[in-house]
Amino acid sequence: MTQRLILASNNAGKLKEFSEILGPIGFTLHPQGEFNVPEAEEPHATFVENALEKARHASRLTGLPALGDDSGVCVNALGGAPGVWSARFAGEPKSDARNNEKLVADLAAHADKSAYYYCVLVYVRHADDPQPVIADGVWEGEIVAEPRGKGGFGYDPYFFIPSLGKCAAELTPAEKNALSHRGQALRALVEKLK
Ligand SMILES: O=c1nc[nH]c2c1ncn2[C@H]1C[C@H](O)[C@@H](COP(=O)(O)OP(=O)(O)OP(=O)(O)O)O1
Ligand SMILES: [Mg+2]
């Protein structure tokens, strides 16, 4: 029997990555858009508060358990920016192309290109669940000036993994999930739900 779960996100890249891990272990993931749930507010300065906000919002509007993901890229030379503000780094409306352009421009004068992706997942059984289940993951890399690869989404063409000699967008979906902040967080979450 498969278990239905609402993904409290409108990001198709996240949906794909989650489905690849959760499908084989018996979960059917439904993006909140299928239930006409509009995007949640993301007003907080911490990832975990935004992920909780997203999960509660989707669960409240669907009456089903929901999984929220808040994630971003944190660049050391920029004091951790864009961090929690990654999706709207270059302003509204959010645009991966403009975000990447701004990231490369802001980093041009810095020698230290190190960065990490962060992802926190929050699962709620219902909108007022007093014990949300929380798991997170970190993936270290460097920001490069020229894009590489066509896979993934967001900042992936500019996120280089030195040990692989590749950018995240050059990895297969399975390779990315095995290493990524999101893959790590999801596997940790699944362990907690068992
Ligand atoms: O694996 C990743 N590969 C590339 N970029 C990534 C990744 N993970 C997060 N990111 C970037 C995309 C976006 O600029 C921000 C997430 O923002 P975040 O608000 O969590 O997601 P979102 O607005 O795209 O969808 P939603 O809020 O509906 O889940 O970090
Ligand atoms: Mg968002």
From TrEMBL:
<dbReference type="InterPro" id="IPR002637">
    <property type="entry name" value="RdgB/HAM1"/>
</dbReference>
<keyword id="KW-0546">Nucleotide metabolism</keyword>
<keyword id="KW-0479">Metal-binding</keyword>
<comment type="similarity">
    <text>Belongs to the HAM1 NTPase family.</text>
</comment>
<keyword id="KW-0460">Magnesium</keyword>
<dbReference type="InterPro" id="IPR029001">
    <property type="entry name" value="ITPase-like_fam"/>
</dbReference>
<keyword id="KW-0547">Nucleotide-binding</keyword>
<dbReference type="InterPro" id="IPR020922">
    <property type="entry name" value="dITP/XTP_pyrophosphatase"/>
</dbReference>
<protein>
    <recommendedName>
        <fullName>dITP/XTP pyrophosphatase</fullName>
        <ecNumber>3.6.1.66</ecNumber>
    </recommendedName>
</protein>
<feature type="binding site">
    <location>
        <position position="71"/>
    </location>
    <ligand>
        <name>substrate</name>
    </ligand>
</feature>
<dbReference type="GO" id="GO:0000166">
    <property type="term" value="F:nucleotide binding"/>
</dbReference>
<feature type="active site" description="Proton acceptor">
    <location>
        <position position="70"/>
    </location>
</feature>
<comment type="subunit">
    <text>Homodimer.</text>
</comment>
<feature type="binding site">
    <location>
        <begin position="9"/>
        <end position="14"/>
    </location>
    <ligand>
        <name>substrate</name>
    </ligand>
</feature>
<dbReference type="GO" id="GO:0035870">
    <property type="term" value="F:dITP diphosphatase activity"/>
</dbReference>
<comment type="function">
    <text>Pyrophosphatase that catalyzes the hydrolysis of nucleoside triphosphates to their monophosphate derivatives, with a high preference for the non-canonical purine nucleotides XTP (xanthosine triphosphate), dITP (deoxyinosine triphosphate) and ITP. Seems to function as a house-cleaning enzyme that removes non-canonical purine nucleotides from the nucleotide pool, thus preventing their incorporation into DNA/RNA and avoiding chromosomal lesions.</text>
</comment>
<feature type="binding site">
    <location>
        <begin position="153"/>
        <end position="156"/>
    </location>
    <ligand>
        <name>substrate</name>
    </ligand>
</feature>
<feature type="binding site">
    <location>
        <position position="176"/>
    </location>
    <ligand>
        <name>substrate</name>
    </ligand>
</feature>
<dbReference type="GO" id="GO:0009117">
    <property type="term" value="P:nucleotide metabolic process"/>
</dbReference>
<feature type="binding site">
    <location>
        <begin position="181"/>
        <end position="182"/>
    </location>
    <ligand>
        <name>substrate</name>
    </ligand>
</feature>
<dbReference type="GO" id="GO:0036220">
    <property type="term" value="F:ITP diphosphatase activity"/>
</dbReference>
<dbReference type="GO" id="GO:0017111">
    <property type="term" value="F:ribonucleoside triphosphate phosphatase activity"/>
</dbReference>
<dbReference type="Pfam" id="PF01725">
    <property type="entry name" value="Ham1p_like"/>
</dbReference>
<dbReference type="GO" id="GO:0009146">
    <property type="term" value="P:purine nucleoside triphosphate catabolic process"/>
</dbReference>
<keyword id="KW-0378">Hydrolase</keyword>
<feature type="binding site">
    <location>
        <position position="70"/>
    </location>
    <ligand>
        <name>Mg(2+)</name>
    </ligand>
</feature>
<dbReference type="GO" id="GO:0036222">
    <property type="term" value="F:XTP diphosphatase activity"/>
</dbReference>
<dbReference type="GO" id="GO:0005829">
    <property type="term" value="C:cytosol"/>
</dbReference>
<feature type="binding site">
    <location>
        <position position="41"/>
    </location>
    <ligand>
        <name>Mg(2+)</name>
    </ligand>
</feature>
<dbReference type="GO" id="GO:0046872">
    <property type="term" value="F:metal ion binding"/>
</dbReference>
